[in-house]
């Protein structure tokens, strides 16, 4: 029996023409056997790749499209019924490790041995629930084929009903005011972020507000004209002459020709400067005559004969350079609270929606400034510059990408070489060069940073921001308010709203705080609507931060095209897969020469050296009676206590996304210690090796080389070359690698260059 063959024969038959196929974890699992079938049968689909995974597959010949529901509903299939409040649906248990060739026809008088269910790979709470179920049902007869069919049908039923409910809710909440035209998220989108963006563009986007930066930038020639402008400026400085050129706003045009530079010498002689860069001028040595310039679509032969028609510009700034990740830092690796002290762990409520609603948003396209700069205070937008950081600043302001990590340091050189001793470098060695938001740079200057050199500014004349007094403004406000209202109403009444007067007061308070008038008659618990509204709020920003140079897939059978792509000066091949003896799948891309930091910095500065740890949307700090601490609240952007009615007595961290703490009393799940480690699933088995005690031991007494190895005996992995899914043994090492700051006495850390 060939299950993949039988399934695909049915799937790609005429009866499914025009279908959209939805699989949960399609990108990581189902897409591979389907691709294998297609390749074996000579069918070349359209693929949207993401690394080694496949986000979606289209088969035009069958008019079939396959997408991943996990990209819309990012949680395990077993969690979906609860999300949508479908109580009669519940994912059961199946002995996956028993699913072997020799057991396909097995009929047992009781359930297979517990080991075949792999309970140690479950989270501790899930494992307890499973063991309770197993003990209750262990004597039940087990027919493998019947149970397999039952389990698969149950999974498909869960996916079917939950996706239909998701689609129904999505279309209902995106209908127009007249009740027409709800948006189907599965029709054209492949992720929840793209669906949110479609809703925003369709329902909320005002004309001429968001400027779309061209893929090659506002002045694509800059990528290949850096040497030209540097040469012109060198001549200007060494000869002491004022040269006209496009980047100082005085471009010289002679008849129909634009020239790179122009000046008159002391004798009145007119001098024309031209720098013939290979890419833009069609250098016959570097390029063949018929090679096409990918930016302006002209042949190199044409460019070679039109070299006097080009402009040259100074090296541009890249706006994505200002798009940094969240700030995640450990300021104190180990702290045990004293008798008169508490350790608090606060989290920001709905961080991303809060920033989208209240943060500044620039309107339209920027003015590009590269010379004759005004004072920093005159600009709103992005700035590429060099700064000299101050010394002695415990919490640096500006981020910089150094050694492929986002760092907040005070000395570039110390950070590059990870210097643990006192910094004696000069300003130039300490300097940071980067692209930052102007507000960020203004704050840095107020903290002692010295602005040395400005290279380029993108200034926006119009900036829009939500006004909490008038409750107006902000280009994303209407979108955020729409789904925040749905989420709040679907959350039901707060526990303190007992009487009608309490409820009216709650509605009034919410309006005064958020500018949103809740509908009294719509406030009732609706888990599905609440979960979807929350997804719409938290996933909205993703499409705005998406990379533009995404991978692509082509199928090649001509050897000359294959070698052209491999040696191309325009394409970077990222993967090659021989589909058949005569066909190659080539993955490639074009060659490429948000607690906002300010919001978080406000808390960090006020807490100073009392901060132990900070993440993108959370902060851990100490407080004694009488000391200032951030206020808590229930509204958008307010802080909430992660350990309510409890307190942390000991906090330890091995670095970003790697911490553990001990509580004064057990939490509502009975846990007195909590451990979080990025990259390792802390299931029952792994948690026996990596937990609060082991993290504390490794931080306080471990050496640099110490590590703990955990094993997954049944790791499902992808064989991209053969489009197969295989099960293998995988190990992961846990060790303390802390290099974002310098560790000093008592586990306190200081920034590099302090």
Automatic annotation (TrEMBL):
Keywords: DNA replication, DNA-binding, DNA-directed DNA polymerase, Nucleotidyltransferase, Transferase. Residues 16-491, 504-582 form the DNA-directed DNA polymerase family B mitochondria/virus domain. GO terms for molecular function: DNA binding; DNA-directed DNA polymerase activity; nucleotide binding. It holds the Pfam family DNA_pol_B_2. The keyword ATP-binding does not apply. GO terms for biological process: DNA replication. It catalyses: DNA(n) + a 2'-deoxyribonucleoside 5'-triphosphate = DNA(n+1) + diphosphate. InterPro entries: DNA-dir_DNA_pol_B, DNA-dir_DNA_pol_B_mt/vir, DNA/RNA_pol_sf, DNA_pol_palm_dom_sf, RNaseH-like_sf, RNaseH_sf. Its EC number is 2.7.7.7. Belongs to the DNA polymerase type-B family. This is DNA-directed DNA polymerase.
